[in-house]
Amino acid sequence: MSTARERILAATEELLASKDALAISTRAICDRAKVGMPEIYRQFGDKQGLLTAVACIGFERFLANKRRNPMTDDPVADLRTAWDSHVAFALDNPHLYRLMFTPAPESQPRAVGEARALLLSALERCRAAGRLRTPLELAGQSILTANVGVCLMALSFPELYGAPEISRSVRDAVIGAVTGDEREDTRITDGIVLAQALVGTLTGTAPAGGDAIARLSQALQGSGPRGDE
Amino acid sequence: MSTARERILAATEELLASKDALAISTRAICDRAKVGMPEIYRQFGDKQGLLTAVACIGFERFLANKRRNPMTDDPVADLRTAWDSHVAFALDNPHLYRLMFTPAPESQPRAVGEARALLLSALERCRAAGRLRTPLELAGQSILTANVGVCLMALSFPELYGAPEISRSVRDAVIGAVTGDEREDTRITDGIVLAQALVGTLTGTAPAGGDAIARLSQALQGSGPRGDE
DNA sequence: TCGAAGGCGTTAGCAACGCTTTCTTAGCTG
DNA sequence: CAGCTAAGAAAGCGTTGCTAACGCCTTCGA
Q1: Rounded to whole angstroms, how far apart are CA atoms B147 and B60?
Q2: What is the CA radius of gyration of chain B?
Q3: What is the rounded average pLDDT of the residues A99-119?
Q4: Contact B181, B190 (CB under 8 A)
Q5: A-chain residues within 8 Å CB-CB of B176?
Q6: Which nucleotide is closest to B7, CA to C1'?
Q7: Measured between alpha carbons, how far is B225 from B182 in angstroms, rounded to an integer?
């Protein structure tokens, strides 16, 4: 048999799979872990302490998950993949996720900080690839906030949450705005690229193909600044 | 003296100004409302029933707030204003907001539905103005989810929440993506405008000022499609 | 004017909760 | 073997949400 502490943690995690943290009684935990009531308080001082420890373990699983995300040669696509795996984790472990991201007074700035660090390093890769048009810090906060926000919302209103569509929509909006990658509307940035090349040609300050005008004209076709559908 | 029901509701709202709903005991409510314990259960059946009633009142204030938002002739700007007033309400009434948007089993799809309806009508105005490039339904869900999500996140991690910057960032990203309005980077759309005029000039198919090239060159200055800041 | 009805206050108490105290036992270490 | 710490057993504390039983007093129709 394992140690008492491990049994308590395991029992709590198991109960957390079906009930909210607040609906779990310390007695139920003790029954399932086959320990006496005082054991919880000897080990964790507090019910909140126990929940914090469980949240910590959850964060470790969460971060391990995130670290497993492959690094492709498209850092922006990696951002989107990370977003999706985050959402999947939340939907798979609703009560645990709520426990992790809805602290009572204050609990784990450490683990959240680590998640932030992971995100920032992913963003740094975007920056290195010249695909970030927002201050790194703000970009990270925006993505993290939106990501957690979408998850909490999905857990609170599952019937209002329309499957992954809405997560994808917010994801592409935020990541797109931060990186400058327009997902569904790359024509705009293409337009800029071509316009820059064109100006370079016309002013004689940059090398550009002679067909710049034709390509620009074609690229701009139908892409107004405020498209009227 | 007012009726018992009103006093109970008022007392709960007052306590909710300083404590979380779960930290409020029914006895404290009764003390403050000068009623006996059974009164709560005669009136609301349940503590949850009382909290639901309070949440209802909160939604009414919330919706009244939203309805007070002026309708300017720029429906997209109105969307942004509504977003900001939503966030302000959440920050002003943290515990009430949490109560409203973190239901236990399920509570007010009615009030949330009304908020959604308000949002959809605002989006309909955008659509009428030709400033919506996303299905109405999905646009509404995306904005509402992101908005509530940012608020819940801000309440859970106030120290991590960097003032209104991040709300603005997510707001402009989501609303921008949904409407096609680029907020902070209007240079891009300006670039498109000028580029179109330029192409018109060069191909002789549109009237444009002779300084088009100069203006385009200036407008594009420093605005790369993948700016390396 | 009377009497039924219902809104409201009072007292007392239940079961469940988080948490504590006390005592005892088991197992390892020096 | 002595001494330490980890951990199981039992009992109980105070608070919580909630209920039962009773009685007052206003309202209102007959």
Answers
A1: 18
A2: 24
A3: 80
A4: no
A5: 173, 177
A6: C8
A7: 13
Gyration radius from chain A CA atoms: 24
Question: Closest chain A residue to B171 measured between Cα atoms?
Answer: A174
Residue B8 CB neighbour total at 10 angstroms: 24
Long-range (24+ apart) CB contacts under 8 A made by A224-227 are A224/B192, A224/B196, A225/B189, A225/B190, A225/B192, A225/B193, A226/B130, A226/B131, A226/B180, A226/B181, A226/B189, A227/B130, A227/B133, A227/B180
Chains A & B: contacts with CB separation below 8 Å: 214
Out of A125-139, B2-16, B60-74, B185-199, least confident range: B185-199
Residue with tokens 């909490």: A152
Residue of A174, A192, A228 for testing the chain B interface, max B β-carbons within 10 Å:
A192
Task: Give this prediction's pTM.
Answer: 0.81
CB contacts of B220 in chain A (<8 Å) are 192, 195-196, 199
Q: What is the pLDDT of residues A159-207, one digit of tens each?
A: 777 678 999 999 999 999 999 877 544 334 444 444 444 444 454 444 4
pLDDT of residue A28: 96
Contact: B160, A103; criterion CB under 8 Å: no
- pLDDT > 70 fraction of chain A, expressed in percent and rounded: 76
